Structures are given as C-alpha cells and as structure tokens.
Amino acid sequence: MSGAPQAGERFKEVETDQEARQIASKRAQIAREQMNRATKRISLDEIGRRLALGNFKELNLIVKGDVDGSVEALSDSLIKLSIEKVQVNVIHRAVGAITESDVLLASASDAIIVGFQVRPSSNARKLAEKEGVQIKLYSIIYEAIEEIKMAIEGMLEPTKEERIISQVEVREVFKISKVGTIAGCYVQEGKITRNTSVRIIRDGIVVFPTREGAAAKIASLKRFKEDMKEVKNGMECGISIENYNDIKVGDIIEGFEIIEIKQKLA
Q1: Which of 158, 175, 207 is the last residue of a domain?
Q2: CA distance 64 to 92
Q3: Are residues 65 and 153 in the same domain?
Q4: The whole model's pTM is what?
C-alpha cells in the first residue's frame, strides 16, 4: 500500500500481486478524476459539454459594468436567455471594477464574471487564475449576449479572442505646447510597442475610447528622448495617445491584441 486506508474500506482478495496492483492503480485514477471534476470551475465552453451529458441545470453570472444603464440592460438580457434545460441567474450586479470580492463570490457559487467596459484589478486577475474563475470582458453588449447564448445552446465556436499583453501605469503627466499631453509611465506587466492597441483605464473603468469595439493608438513611444519600438516590463517610458489629452496620474494604459482562435467543444 502507498498509504493508510480510510476507516470502513473493505479488503478484496485476488489471486496475484499483479492483479492487485492493477486494481489499485485503476481506483487511484478514478479518485483523481473525481477530484478534478469536483474542483473544476465552470467556463462558457464547458456549458455545452455539460448540456450534452444532461447534468447542467443553472448558469450563475456576476455582471460588472461602467454605468448603471449598461449593467441593468446586460443583466436583463442575460436572464432572458434562460431555456428549459438551463436557468441563467445573475447572482450579483454592480458598477465598477472587478474586485477580489467578486472573484471570491464567483468561486463560492461556481459563477462566471461578465465585465462590460470594466477591467479586473491586478490582484483580482491573479486571484481568478488561482481559483480557476473565468472572467469574460466585453465592450459590445450584443457580443456578450450572443456568446453566452451560443454557449447555452452548445454551439460556442469563437473565432476571435482578446488577449491583454501589457499594463502600463501613468506616474507623471506633462503638458507640452504644440505636442500635447505626454504620460510618464512605468511598464508593470508585459511589453508595450509602438503599434500596440490600447485603452485608458481609470479606477477600473474604461474612459477612452468609450465607443464600443474601438481601440486607441499610441502617437509616440519614447524612452528619454529616443523613439522606441517597444518598452519591456520594469522600464519607464513616455507615451502620448492619438486624439486624447485628458490622461491623468494613476491611469492604466492597457495594451491588448485580438487573436484568431478555433475552439470546439469537448
């Protein structure tokens, strides 16, 4: 035996040592699979698989948004997606950034967090990765509704996915005549490049661009006085954003990219 048996377990007598080892190995494998299933958190592409098995009854969602109107509209639309086999529940809705409390609630209730024009804090994102909680972020309401609807119907096959590639903190702001606003920044995560698509986050809410599906562009990227193609994690730089001068100390410049994916249900 590799360890002590549990109280109440039964002995089974077999003819050979080899047969005993095979049975023990098989039972250990089954126990591991049961444990993995018990701890696995729900995700959109998991819904279709559970529907096919006939063992899925409810989809719990936490909805966070930038304004009350968006949160209410999105929540009401998602609740209306309920079908005979799946009940959609919005267990929490609120305005503001996605916090660690949201992640803990999602973990406890096996829920998916849906964010509209908001982003998780750095600690919340790390906690979500640790807890296995899925956070889905959207800037277009109908895309959120359609993706979750497709998941419920067991047809989730997204072709595009947004990936965060950098997070840059604004630490100083310089107003320069004939040039505009230059943000003195520190790259907290990833790397920022001259061609990176970005958005401005203030207190967890997207403040630019606010148009659905839009991305801001970097007008200049400098380190000291030199133009740079990229600036990596842990380095300082100066950034100006095309058509936006209202940047403030404490803002986060979030770099992202859209990647093509082909995803099929298991």
Answers
A1: 158
A2: 8
A3: yes
A4: 0.63
Distance between CA atoms of 34 and 28, rounded to whole angstroms? Answer: 10
The count of C-alpha atoms lying within 13 angstroms of the C-alpha of 60, restricted to the half-sphere facing its C-beta, is 15
Domain boundary among 158, 191, 213: 158
Q: How many CB atoms lie within 10 A of CB 249?
A: 11
Q: CATH no. for residue 134?
A: 3.40.50.10050
- 37: burial class by Cβ within 10 Å (0-12, 13-18, 19+)? exposed
What CATH number has the domain bearing residue 239?
A: 2.40.30.10
Number of domains comprising the chain: 2
Q: Which domain holds residue 213?
A: 162-260
- Digit-coded pLDDT (tens) for 17-69: 888 888 877 777 666 555 444 445 667 777 666 666 666 678 899 999 999 99
pLDDT above 60 (res 264): no
